[in-house]
Amino acid sequence: MLAERVEARLAEAGASAESRSAAVRAMLHASRLGIDSHGVRLTEHYCRMLGGGRLNKAPQLGVDKRGAGSAMVDGDDGLGHYAAYRAVDVGMELAREAGVGAVGVRRSSHYGAAGAYALAGAEQGFVTFATTNTDSMVALFDGAEKFHGTNPLAFAAPVPDSQPWLLDMATSSIPLNRVLLHRSLDKELPQGVAATPEGEPTRDPFAADMLLPLGGVDYGYKGAGLAGVATLFSALLTGTTLDPEFIPMYGGEDISSPRNMGHFVLVIDPDKFAGRAVFAAAITGYLASLRASAVRAGGKVMAPGDREWDVLERRRAEGIPLDPDTIRFLGL
Fold first, then answer.
1. Which domain does 248 fall in, by range?
2. pLDDT by residue (tens digit) across 43-88?
3. Do 148 and 224 form a contact (C-beta atoms < 8 A)?
4. For every residue of 132-147, which 3-state class applies, written as one string?
5. Does residue 151 lie within any of the structural domains?
6. Which of 43, 245, 248, 288 supports an S-S bond with 252, CB 3.0-4.6 Å?
7. Residue 134 — very low, low, confident or very high, per pLDDT cuts 50/70/90?
8. Where residue 261 sits, what CATH number does that domain have?
9. Which CA distances in Å does 48 have to 52, 59, 101, 257?
10. Residue 122 counted as domain residue
């Protein structure tokens, strides 16, 4: 029922069948795996941008093959999920021939959780990396103004007879949508993840004006550097918008101008390296060793993705929790 309600609202906003199908797929991925900040709660935002003209309701995607293992996808200013999934498909086609498929995306828009696209490749047997840069909302290390976006890095790999290995992380301490979710729930933020306009750390979601980079006050240089990696691949290689130059995703008056967002995916075929059988045995052994590693008292060792797959099973049984604003908008 939830997927049908999300698709119905996007259809009412005029999104084409292909683009809204991709958006529903990506948002449900996030909601099912517990990434609520990038899940179905974004439906209202996307509908508003479709109505305002920022998003092309019926984008015609273009693909320009630039080399044996590289290509560019033109998102035609539509929903970013549509362009990103197409980039993964193109990357897999290239990787089957060249071993790797590196695909940049231009003229796109916000695409939700980067892990949705890394997972799409892994589910077809490919090691996959996906990233995007976003509008400035994260301070630099020791900085007192917004510079990078939350700039996620997502990696996924196939695992025989199991869910894929999956790492999907923002390079900020938390994503901005988490702040908005905490505002909706009137809930305090964790320590060391956000700051006031003066750059002072705060737990008040209503006082938070910017995010802190991964590592927080003491080790944020690591997150700030990784945010630059996302910008390198997503904006510099694709010739798209730099973080400080974006029209803000939220809060601005302009909802009619496209944002020319860039994304990047790298798809790798294990058959073209040591071989699929060798890789399958290696990742199976690696994960078995990782999960068998000694733990401190009260601790639990988990591989990337283990938490998400646990949440998936729980939500399959109990349903997906929704915040009040999303319940209102979807009419549930």
1. 60-272
2. 999 999 999 999 999 999 999 999 999 999 999 999 999 999 999 9
3. yes
4. ECCCCCEECCCCCCEE
5. yes
6. 248
7. very high
8. 3.30.1370.60
9. 6, 17, 34, 13
10. yes
